[in-house]
TrEMBL record:
The keyword Cytoplasm does not apply. This is Putative proline/betaine transporter. Pfam families: MFS_1. Belongs to the major facilitator superfamily. Metabolite:H+ Symporter (MHS) family (TC 2.A.1.6) family. PROSITE patterns: MFS, SUGAR_TRANSPORT_2. It comes from the Bacteria. The chain crosses the membrane at residues 21-39, 51-69, 81-99, 105-129, 150-169, 181-200, 233-250, 270-287, 299-318, 324-348, 360-381, 393-411. One of its GO terms (cellular component) is plasma membrane. InterPro entries: H+-coupled_symporters, MFS, MFS_dom, MFS_trans_sf, Sugar_transporter_CS. It is found in: Cell membrane.
Amino acid sequence: MKSATPWKAVIGGSVGNLVEWYDWFVYASFATYFASAFFPHGNPTAQLLNTAGIFAVGFFMRPVGGWLLGRYADRRGRKAALTLTVSLMSVSALLIAIAPTYEQVGYAGAVVLLIARLLQGLSVGGEYAASATYLTEASTPGRRGFVSSFQYVSMTFGQLLGLGLQIVLQHTMTTADLHSYGWRIPFVAGALGAAVVFWLRRNLVETEAYTELEGTETERGTLRRLLAHKREFALVMALTMGGTVAYYTYTTYLTKYLSNTVGLSKNDAALVSFCALTVFMLLQPLAGSLSDRIGRRPLLITFGVGATFGTVPLMTTLSHTGSFGGALLLAVTALVIVTGYTSINAVVKAELFPTQIRALGVALPYALANALFGGTAEYVALWFKDAGVESGYYWYVSALAAVSLVVYLTMRETRDNELTEGSRPATKAAVPA
């Protein structure tokens, strides 16, 4: 891994991340089709609230996955953790694909759906940290922002695959067939894809930063060790808060918002999301590379300002935009703002912790913030809509972004922090071990 850009490591780490997030987001993008399959017929918004609630439950499993698999990655290696997470995701996707409907077994089908989401939450809770840590450690200091940005390239590409498959199915199947059985197809594909990635990840090479520590530290990945970094723990939660709610608002929730509020057809809503996310994906390496030149804070601050002061006017304007072109322009604008966070948030968190606790230090606080603010974003948005005050959600997103903006303005730069054995964050923000 001595090259300026370790493409073998980038591809090996990212392809599994792609499948993980394909399965994670397929649930959200196909929820409008399978919501009625697991719950009694009635109010469509109420059905979406039920499926969104199960979606949120998956997020609350992520802290458990962050703790267990973050510890596993620090004690057994990044490669071992990456292989385990994709195995769990394969099982969860298969469970959703074969889950019985409400008409067949009543609420038992929803229980199977819930179990699958819990497994997904466990898996993704560890995947984020293992992938972020692996990509960061596998790159040279001057290229860490660029290399780690491929985490969100792969995450977004996974979502694009899900949306692309949705568009294909929408044009090749009837709406009735999609509601009946067509929604199962992407979950079958996800399970098979994860099985392939399992084999690919077995051939990854462990990072040098981790191999230097093997056999030298008995408290790697322990909560006791993590408690020596309380300020970094709190910092990760605070800088994640605004970014995660904005990200899920303009990615997983966007398709529902466009069809349920803006009034676009499901086909047009999916196509708007697909085009906007394609632009978003291509921006990630550019922004990550820019952070290697000017630092991480300028990009985070740009996001914070944009999300704090731009969310209300963007979402309000979008709600009154009935055209495909107008919706696409506003969606792209929102995702350009979010890029300031997504392109570098993984590397910033990894740069805050020493190798002995890096995976757990990234995983646990991020997963907690994600569960509290990212996983509930869709549910909160639908709750505001159901209560007749949908604009309240726009202010909610702005308020969380404002909190993160304060953190971005006051935190120290992390770009030049060392990642070698026994290193301490150059920010001097850490509590002495």
